[in-house]
Specification:
Strand order of the largest sheet: 7-6-5-11-10-9
InterPro entries: GAF-like_dom_sf (IPR029016), HTH_MetabolicPath_Reg (IPR050707), Tscrpt_reg_IclR_C (IPR014757), Tscrpt_reg_IclR_N (IPR005471), WH-like_DNA-bd_sf (IPR036388), WH_DNA-bd_sf (IPR036390)
Number of strands: 11
Pfam families: HTH_IclR, IclR_C
Radius of gyration: 19 Å
GO molecular function, one term: DNA-binding transcription factor activity
Order of helices and strands: HEHHEHHEEHHEEEHHEHEEEH
CATH architecture of the largest domain: 2-Layer Sandwich
Protein name: Helix-turn-helix domain-containing protein
Keywords: DNA-binding, Transcription, Transcription regulation
Shape: globular
Distance between the termini: 16 Å
Amino acid sequence: MVKTAQGIAAFFTRDIVMPHEPLSSVKEGCMSEKKPDTLSVRQSEHDPNFMLSLARGLEVLNAFTPQRQRLTISQLSQKTQISRAAVRRCLYTLAALGMVHSPDGRSYELLPRVLAVGHAYLAGTPLAKVAQSALDNLGKNLGESCSAATLDGDNVLYIARAAVNNLLSVDIGRGSRLPAWATSMGRVLLSALPEEQLEVTLSRASLIRYTPYTLCDLPGLRQEIARVRMQGYALADRQIEVGLCSLAVPLLSRSGQVVAALNVGVPAGYTNAAALKEKALAPLRRAAMALSLQL
């Protein structure tokens, strides 16, 4: 990996390629099966200090997404692979703590108090602070929305965002999460993983056809991520939303490790992927390089 400031500069001046990224309401299954993640159970069997009930409660919270903001006990059980009885106990406890509630007595949704769990990280991490300032300037110069995200399990976690126009059907801001495999920033971050870890991550992902253009077959994703790794950037055109085209580049630490990704998103209706690359790749790389030198 790159070890010096000069090396970082050389990395960002390479000719790099990106995946396309949109968000749509189409939810057809693709050529991948969701494999149950029993990591919590396996961990508890071998580690007497591991608190399985706490892990299950967090898994229930993580099951809620911008696309699925209200879920029933059955849906949560299916999504988390936790028994209905255990999910019910988790929800009872979370409701008592003011983190979820059931508006209709059947389904559950998150309450604002959940934000307190991650607020300390998002408000206090130096990376989020310096990234926000850089994105504000970049967004103003380009006249487009810009974001920064890190990899959080199978998702990207937004740590900073400068929104010019909201191009998604759901509100995106700090703390929002989207599936890594379907987004430009996610594909950049996935491309930095060791092959074995990448395969594990892809094998357990629910590959949903968000739009008619979503690349959601494993062979195609592997090829795209390999191209991103080789070229150094990702273009996601209408992958997760029909109206969105985005471009992302990696953000490197001084030691050359990929610690986050930066992206620019534009309306797919008036700008295609090639035009976005021409307009935003160089400024995006410059912003990432400047940030890298501050880390």
